[in-house]
Amino acid sequence: MGVSLQFVYGRGSAVSASAPPRPQFPTRATAPVELSKTSISRSSCRGLRRYVNPPGWASRRNASVRVGGVGADEGEEAGAPDWDAEMSIFKKRTLKPSQLATLRQIEGEASIGKVLHSNSDLVIVEGLNNDAEPGTVVSFASGARGVLLWRRNDNICFILAFGGTSTITEGTPVQCSIQGILQVIDDEEGVVTKRKFETAQIPVDDVAGQIVNFIGRVKGSSGGQEDKGQKIPLLHKSPNMEDRGQINESLFTGVAAVDTLAPLGRGQSMLLTGLAGSGKRDLMLEAILGQRKSDVHCVLALIGEEEGVAEKLRALLEDKGAMARTTIVEAPKGSSFGQSYLAICTATSIAEKYRDNGGHSLVLLGDLAPMVQLWELFTAALVKMGPQALALESGDEEKLEKALEEEELVQYEGMLVSASAAQRRQFFAALIQRASKMHKRLGGGSLTMVGALAGEPATGISKRRQAVIEQHKTLSAEMKAKLLAALAAKEKLAGLDPDADRRRIRTEVVEEFMSLTDGQIVLEGSRDTDSGCMVVNSAASVSRIGNRAYDDVLAPVATPIRTALAQADDAQRASIDDNGDDINRALRARALLLQDLQQPVLLEDLVVKLYALEAGCLDDIEPRRVRSAAGMIVQEFRLKHPEILNEIRTTRNLSKDAVVVLKEWMKAHESLL
């Protein structure tokens, strides 16, 4: 079966005169499409018979010869071929398809959607083409343009309109912008057409060391030069399983607590959560500084920050020597939820550029809250238009709650959830699953993702402590009430009061992101008072990649420390008594993992410190002096055995002989402090 391809239609659109009346959409100025036309004369048809001979042609031809006084004309009437059928077959096989006919066919099949709701820059549409994917550019009959953000299973589409929705009203026609038409000419079926929709693209040339806006344009540039450079889709599909490789290489961040308790593997997705002021942005900055001498390109999405913050961060990173391999994507305070979401997508797409070229990238999404709020805005609008609208209009909240509870349940990833919850989960997963380690046949590149969300997981600490108080039968009711009040005051002081942080995301949503990512880093509500450093919650933070996310040199010593911290935390929660060797040892371990801001720890230094803790060199040191004592140990060891530190730095491993030397040195220098 022979197949040939022909691209017959470029950017622009055409409306067939024979098609039914359709809304007229503004189009870009394009050169007219030249239509090919082939004419065949009657005299040439006989010469072409040999190309289109059907079965039995020879016998029918012989029948036209004069036999027994019968003329050729009579013979042709008796057994002449069907010329119309033969010419139809001939045209399918040899003639170029009519471009005009193709355009008419495409115009007849193009779906015209209808606006159901518009507010700010967000639009809800129904009736768009089923084959249009997120990232497709759409045109409104009013002249506005937008990008398709998400398509629900019921063909309801969420769109971000460029320039606002002032010209878009309910009922406004909308259609996907067709970039071109691909024709496939098949020997048997003839012409088959396929549409290619226009997709939103972002410029990616020379973005290293730059600050760009939510659609990838370098801040302060005119945009003319960027339009000529390389562009990539704004909304990529996540790689399929066949294109992914196993995550088996560590991405060392330079944040001691993260690299010890919840390590990052190249290609992993990680949620970073904590309340306002817990240090999420500082941790991300520390991770960028930790890549100064690595092969990892960093992309930071700054969401909702004050004007000027991006410039200050660039100056800091330039001063530290880390900006050359970093790109900052900015959606400052005052940006809409849609623009903030596009900034998240732009940062991810820039990181994908390095991954797809065989390199390694780390994308740090400063705040995922706009993604959650965007979905909630769309959902609230749908509720007002749907069956639950009557309950909202009448103010019957109980009726509305019941209607939502009775929503159809569907099975999704082995769970029975409401249809709306399944849709939301798919929307979140579309972003999270773009983090990946690619198969070696595709270059073996990686995109590691860390997304921040203001909130906290469901820890149940308050309930457990309340249960402990209630168990004491010797306490009076008045005393129990005072203890519970003191507990509430302590949690509020630590930043656990829901009213204290308006940007805080519901625990339910935080838990949903945790279930989608490959692990989470949970920050305590308050920082360390001495260093001002963020404090990682050792019990709630975890990497679900396992030991494959550790550097080989770190796994043997970091895993036991993480286990000991988790056991000490459980023991402390179950008992009112805070004394004990295990708990004191845990306090020293937590103190060891603290570090000053903007001073990422080196891998070789962290390894020596953890071996010192394991060897008991810090057992007699007060927790507040642990960091300085560990620093002295590293300095002394560097003077005596620089070759071992160099081995760790260059190979990210330790030979058996080096491990023996390290442990013996620790044992011989227990009295150093």
From TrEMBL:
Belongs to the ATPase alpha/beta chains family. It is found in: Membrane. This is H(+)-transporting two-sector ATPase. It comes from the Eukaryota. Residues 582-667 form the ATP synthase alpha subunit C-terminal domain. Residues 254-371 form the ATPase F1/V1/A1 complex alpha/beta subunit nucleotide-binding domain. Its main location: membrane. One of its GO terms (molecular function) is ATP binding. InterPro entries: ATP_synth_asu_C, ATP_synth_asu_C_sf, ATP_synth_F1_asu, ATPase_F1/V1/A1_a/bsu_nucl-bd, P-loop_NTPase. GO terms for cellular component: proton-transporting ATP synthase complex. It holds the Pfam family ATP-synt_ab.
